[in-house]
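note to self — DONT lose this again. spent like an hour looking for the file last time. sequence + predicted structure for the chain T wanted, 227 res
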Amino acid sequence: MPEPLDAEFFCAGCRTPFVSAYALDERGLCAVCCEGLANFDSAYSFGSYEGSLQKLIQIFKYGKVETLARPLGEFLIRAVPCDERFDLIIAMPMHWRKKWERGFNQAELLARPVAKRYGLPLSTNLRRKRYTKSQAGLSEAERQSNLAGAFVVEDPSRLAAQHILLIDDVFTTGATLRAAASVLKRAGAARVSALTLARADRAFDNRGRAPVDQNAGHLAYAGAGGS
């Protein structure tokens, strides 16, 4: 059974886990949040992208076992603080071509039980207008460049002053979540909270790229383009 994320120190802003308080300032914020680069107001994850949780996510996405969406969605619900309240739920959009290739948008399937639990609409107002290459294996700078202009809000009036819960499967560097949150904020959203099943270890090789799991045949940390 996957275990909830456990760390002694978390960023007070984006909730990134750290092994020591050295990476946090006196306000408890990490460097990304201190520089105002997070774009989202908070970020929650159920567990670490390893062990049984990693295997379940891989089976769900690459084995196309869509029935796992419901139990995995229950893990997502457990990751949200009891006192949080949202107005709208948005699943990380997938370009139509990529959705056609995979057969489904895993973030959308995960978001459905969460939307049902909170009695909130699952909005499709955020659209991925540009086909981007996989984020897997890209450096942080390459991820940001790859996502430039990728998202668009179709009806900004529906987001005005709303607290949005943005859902995806894996939080890797946060580049995709930050790009999407930035577009939502510019469209008028008051707050954006990110919710993912798993946090990947943000370790990189000496070229700034996420390492590869040779046994899995794809990236261990980013999957097929983690956020």
